[in-house]
Queue: 2 jobs
Job 1
Amino acid sequence: MMNESNSIEEMYRILEFPELGDERGNLVVVEGGIQIPFDIQRIFYIYGSDDSVVRGQHANLRSQFVLVNVAGSSKVKVDNGLETRIIELNKPRMGLYLSRMLWKEMYDFSPDSVLLVLSDEHYDGSEYIRDYDEYLKALNHK
Ligand code: TYD
């Protein structure tokens, strides 16, 4: 169970996906349970955001995610209530795994950014914590 005693390094991970490119171009493969450390239940993607937008700003009670900038770049700030880290996503072969109960913000989207998100849960708004004080309280009650 993730809680405030988890160091932030245990709560996110940079992934590098295999690239099966040849003279025809590049092909990157991600499979649930192999490169992605969970079974994939949901895919969504974010595009048309720019460098004035901050997205995310929530934590999830259950969902885990892998984020991939399949085009362009963005930054992700992760926060476990004690520490923060900033990760730049800027390669189609690069994934960012995020555990449950990690506060996250996505920002600094390049104009061509397409941010693909994989999750192990179907969407359920009730497992999103969208208030930072509530998030800190939820951590303390674990
Ligand atoms: P939101 O969680 O605010 O997106 P982000 O974290 O990227 O800023 O989602 C925006 C809206 O879309 C919100 O009304 C919830 C809805 N939504 C779904 O219905 N299903 C989904 O899988 C996601 C991610 C969002």
Job 2
Amino acid sequence: MNVRVYKDDKAIGSAAAALFAACVTEKPNCVFGLATGSSPIPTYRKMAELYRDGAVDYAGVTTYNLDEYVGLDHDHDQSYYYFMQENLFRHINVKEENIHVLSGIAPDPEKECRDYEKAIETAGGIDLQILGIGRNGHIAFNEPADAFAPATHVVELTESTIDANKRFFTSVDDVPRRALTTGIGTIMKARAIVLIATGADKAEAVRAMVKGPVTPRCPASILQFHPNTTIMVDEAAASLL
Ligand code: GLP
């Protein structure tokens, strides 16, 4: 685990976008693993800027997102598909047919998960995965549990995650209780990972991830075993390291 401390989220965004740019330059048909939440937004802004400036061409890139809420279709303004369109996809030249986000309204969610896991494998696996981290140490929607989930699956969200995400909904009752998420195993297969955390409310999760024992009680701690993970944090998120 390579931990780097930056002065603010803008500096982190530039550094993470540079990793994506390097990935495409080296392999124009590379596969990105993408995340939602506020943490990756400065990265997505910078990725769009690099496209506008003609510095990076995403035409050959394939993307797989980490997760999606059960019950929200792609047009719902709180669906993760919608988030990705608004914050990244419509600002760059990634092809619509190369974009993959789990469907929250699939009639058979378990099958949707199995098909998604297979599709990532068929695409050759993820070259660069971006992650945020929840206050309870979750990555994607892999909540603290008794075991690490090997593959894409349906999950019940914890109160902590529902509480953290309620700011995006009219009321806490509108926050979906379940989600589809790639597993810890899916994430660990990515060839390179960059995890972003900013602000004091992430400091304890960052400490547990970097310094704590590797345990499914803090899902992000498994990244200690990943051979190519960069943790990008600001000083507030790094304050307990
Ligand atoms: C959600 C997402 C995670 C994300 C987390 C933290 O639960 N499923 O992928 O990492 O929120 O979000 P934020 O970056 O807004 O703190």
